[in-house]
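Deviation from plan, reported transparently: adenosine-5'-diphosphate complex.
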Amino acid sequence: MKVLLKVEDVTKYYGTGQVVTKALDGISFDVAKGDFVAIMGASGSGKSTLLNCISTIDRVSAGKIILEGDVISSKKEDELAHYRRDKLGFIFQDYNLLDTLTVEENITLPLNLQGVAHKKSSVLCRQITEQLAISEQLNKFPVELSGGQRQRVACARALITKPSVILADEPTGALDSINSKKLMGTLVMMNEEMQSTILMVTHDPLVGSYAKRVLFLKDGKLWNELYKGDKSNRVIHEEILATMALLGGEGLV
Ligand code: ADP
Ligand code: MG
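Because the crystal trials were delayed, the predicted structure below was used instead.
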């Protein structure tokens, strides 16, 4: 499998002087093209920091992040805006849709920012929204949608630029269990049928059981890793629960 993303010995400190937090401590792993990786660990273990370093919202203190052979951790701020816009798709817990734009305008916003012509972005929007079963909602505003539908709109917005990697931080965090399950079905479809590479942070073992790999962080270190392989969701879910019990501490919140 072709390596798409390399995280090499990444360390991240926050603060200065006597109040320094080591949020990430020498983390290394590779992500292959087409992979679906869940990142799990207790609150404060460094999950969001890791995702934010990969998305360059945070800068690493040491180590490297390499995407498609490009060392992005040493890029300058003006190059990073292009990197984020062209190479990454984001899905957030709280959807981050713009209330004053319609569903279609929200979804095509990243293409408008890239200067893609309206006609082309409209065609791409139709294709993706049909795959995600939200093509009936294009003229509505986000407030008129359910939480589950809003998150599918966010998925469409993340997909429309055909990014190299989709980064999702607690994508089911605001959804009930039925809509969480539906969203995970959508992410699996994006991964299997659209060949999207997905890196997702979650504290929920059921959500993690949909991924192909689960990385566990503890105190900013990569502590353990599970591979789903041919195992069912049920079996990998049991393994995630057993690993969490070994991780110990205050539980995953
Ligand atoms: P998680 O997402 O696993 O809950 P985080 O990545 O948010 O963990 O946090 C890891 C550690 O870094 C925690 O100790 C947290 O308090 C600290 N931290 C995160 N962001 C900041 C920040 N902006 N400034 C200072 N400390 C931070
Ligand atoms: Mg977090």
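The pocket of magnesium ion (ligand 2) is lined by residues 47-48 (CB under 6 Å). We consider this an acceptable substitute for the interim report.
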